[in-house]
Amino acid sequence: MSTTVGQILQTKPDSGRTVYTISKTDSVYEAIKLMAEKGIGALLVLDGDTVAGIVTERDYARKVVLRDRSSKDTRVEQIMTASVRYVSPQQTSDECMALMTERRMRHLPVMDKGQLVGIVSIGDLVKSVIADQQFIISQLEHYIHG
Q1: Which range of residues forms the domain containing residue 77?
Q2: 73-110 pLDDT per residue, tens
Q3: Distances (CA, A) of 138 to 11, 36, 44, 133
Q4: Which spans in the chain are helix H?
Q5: Is the distance from CB of 110 to CB of 5 less than 8 angstroms?
Q6: What is the pLDDT of residues 33-80, one digit of tens each?
Q7: In terms of pTM, does the model score above 0.90?
Q8: What is the full DSSP assignment across 88-111?
């Protein structure tokens, strides 16, 4: 029994529908400030209305801090990951975990019929897997003792 991405989005506090974005021409400082304010680890990067990439705290640590760059003088497009992998609401948490493990990613935007409808993190998926396992254990205990 594997939960779908759509089900995971529905359990998130804001229904998982809020996806924070930033322009590719904004400074990395603005991106990190927004992530800190919202308590998130990634932003989708827009070029106008088009998704141009994704920028994460990891990008900041590895491509700004470790290279001794200035976050106020570096644009998001200079450190973002341009090739963004998407999943659909119908995909399972197991499929997403496999993709994240294989690609060493921590965030997956969710697209439905060409529309961006949410984002799932590795934390969201782990929480879902644990809940699924607890449900199975509960059912087995009920079966054994019931």
Answers
A1: 5-145
A2: 999 999 999 999 999 999 999 999 999 999 999 999 99
A3: 20, 37, 38, 9
A4: 5-11, 28-38, 57-60, 93-103, 122-145
A5: yes
A6: 999 999 899 999 999 888 899 999 999 999 998 899 999 999 999 999
A7: no
A8: -TTSBHHHHHHHHHHHT-SEEEEE
CATH number for the domain that contains residue 109? 3.10.580.10
Distance separating alpha carbons of residues 128 and 98, to the nearest angstrom: 14
How many structural domains comprise the chain?
A: 1
pLDDT at 27: 97
Q: CA Rg, the chain, in Å?
A: 18
Q: How far is CA 137 from the centre of its chain?
A: 28
Q: Determine contact, residues 32/24, Cβ cutoff 8 Å.
A: no
Tokens of 11: 């359990």
User: Which of 60, 76, 64 minimizes the C-alpha distance to 26?
Assistant: 76
- Classify residue 36 by burial, with Cβ atoms within 10 Å: 0-12, 13-18, 19+: exposed
Conformation bin of residue 48: beta by default, left when phi > 0, alpha when psi is -120 to 50 = left
CB atoms within 10 A of CB 93: 22
- Residue 114 to residues 3, 34, 69, Cα–Cα distance (Å): 22, 26, 36
